[in-house]
């Protein structure tokens, strides 16, 4: 998908797409850096969009690691499904991160090690954001990591109401520059 198509999806769905341009490859590398790929058995991605983070995850994950990518946008979902349908232990789901427990039950997953998120928490309604983060903290438990990015630190205190430990790094090689948040309970 080229930048024109991405912009069109942003214009159609600005609250859920959340950015005018896809994330950079460098931001994708920063997002997956905290994942201990040699140890994890299940990774979930919320809002993969065009698959920039998805590509990095698939490139580094162990073949036995289960990977669920949950995308609400129909256009992005179809593109991801077509691109990754052949990859073993990769499941592209057309749906919402709000339903994470339902998807885990469907695939018989009892433990999630990492959740990587491209969701635009700043533009999502606060009730939806809160519910997603509540469910996320619950499925990750004490040992899992939630990794997300935001264009400002304004949501840091919001994240801290769901996670005890929050580290962040500034990623300059993205338009606009972004903060990568690494959260755990």
Order of helices and strands: HHHEHEHEHEHEHEE
Give helix % range: 25-40%
Outline the low-pLDDT stretches: 1-11, 13-20
| C-alpha termini separation | 36 Å
Strand order of the largest sheet: 3-2-1-4-5-7-6
Question: Strand tally, please?
Answer: 7
Largest β-sheet summary: 7 strands, mixed
Spatial extent as radius of gyration: 15 Å
So what's the overall shape? globular
By secondary-structure content and strand pairing, the structural class works out as alpha/beta
Proportion of residues in β-strands: 15-25%
Describe this structure in words.
The protein has 185 residues and is an alpha/beta fold. 37% of the residues lie in helices and 22% in strands. The protein is built from eight helices and seven strands, in the order αααβαβαβαβαβαββ. A seven-stranded mixed β-sheet has the order 3-2-1-4-5-7-6, with helices on both faces. Helix 7 links the parallel strand 4 and strand 5. Helix 3 packs across helix 4. It is globular and about 40 Å long. 38% of the residues are buried. The N terminus is likely disordered.
């Amino acid at each position: 998908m080229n930048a024109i198509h991405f912009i069109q999806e942003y214009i159609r769905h600005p609250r859920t797409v959340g950015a005018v341009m896809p994330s950079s490859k460098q931001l994708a590398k920063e997002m997956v850096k905290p994942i201990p790929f040699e140890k994890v058995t299940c990774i979930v991605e919320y809002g993969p969009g065009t698959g920039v983070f998805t590509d990095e995850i698939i490139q580094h994950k162990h073949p036995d690691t289960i990977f669920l990518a949950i995308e609400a946008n129909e256009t992005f979902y179809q593109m991801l499904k077509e691109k990754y349908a052949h990859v073993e232990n990769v499941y592209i789901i057309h749906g919402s991160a709000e339903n994470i427990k339902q998807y885990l039950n469907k695939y018989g997953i009892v433990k999630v090690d990492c959740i990587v998120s491209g969701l635009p928490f700043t533009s999502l309604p606060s009730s939806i954001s809160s519910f997603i983060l509540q469910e996320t903290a619950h499925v990750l438990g004490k040992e899992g990591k939630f990794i997300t990015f935001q264009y400002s630190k304004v949501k840091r205190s919001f994240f801290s109401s769901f996670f005890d430990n929050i580290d962040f790094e500034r990623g300059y090689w993205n338009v606009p520059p972004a903060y990568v948040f690494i959260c755990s309970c």
